[in-house]
Amino acid sequence: MTADLDLKDLVRTIPDYPKPGIMFRDITTLLGHANGFRACVERLAAPFTNRRVQAVAGIEARGFILGGAVADRLRCGFVPIRKKGKLPAKAIGEEYELEYGIDVIEVHEDAVSAGEPVLLIDDLIATGGTAEAAVKLLRKLNAEVVGASFVIELTALGGSARLAKLGVQCHSLLTFEGD
Ligand code: AMP
How many domains does the chain have? Predict the structure, then answer.
């Protein structure tokens, strides 16, 4: 029922959001489609069903929706990677560059144990800056990042090559050429 569903048709593109020149790839339309959402979760989990994954780490906020569902499917735990100041217990952070300025993402310092195989999930990879910071953050906890999966990859922005340089393989369900 979901095998031949074209997920790209379910992604809505909003030109000039949040600022002129950006083509915003909106996945709320995909998440709101019952078979679309299910196919998305199935396809994100598929490369890892026979691999040892002990936790899925999702990046705030859309990575929580997808990551939580993938963790359930892979029968493992979920680890939230959040924007600075949002986590209640002791956390460690990693800075990354935005177009203007820097941002910080954090994870609880006891969220994963050393050597734990972790799958990273977010909705979209553009420049790969956010995902790179997340990989570095998980590695600070000595986690083994077994892969990074995204619904959408904006191929022109080189995010998957950036992760490859860190030795992390990127899996993307859909690609868009521009931003
Ligand atoms: P980056 O760090 O450049 O790979 O950007 C990835 C993050 O920014 C993801 O969390 C995305 O949700 C968001 N993002 C970047 N560009 C877009 C876009 N064109 N449409 C939707 N979300 C985007």
Answer: 1
Please, which pLDDT band fits residue 179 given cuts at 50, 70 and 90?
low
CATH of the domain at 62: 3.40.50.2020
Instruction: Give residue 70's domain range.
Output: 52-176
In the residue annotation, 132 being an active-site residue is answered as no
How far apart are the CA of 133 and the centre of ligand 1, in A? Answer: 14
Of 38, 42, 60, 62, the active-site residue reads 62
Pocket of ligand 1 (CB under 6 A): 22-25, 59, 62, 122-131, 159, 179
For residue 111, count CB atoms less than 10 angstroms from its CB and return exposed for 0-12, middle for 13-18, buried for 19 or more: buried
On the question of pLDDT at 4 being above 90, the answer is no
Mark whether 62 is an active-site residue.
Answer: yes
CA distance 41 to 65: 10
- Inside any domain, residue 24: no
pTM comes to 0.97
- Distance (Å) from CA 174 to ligand 1 centroid: 14
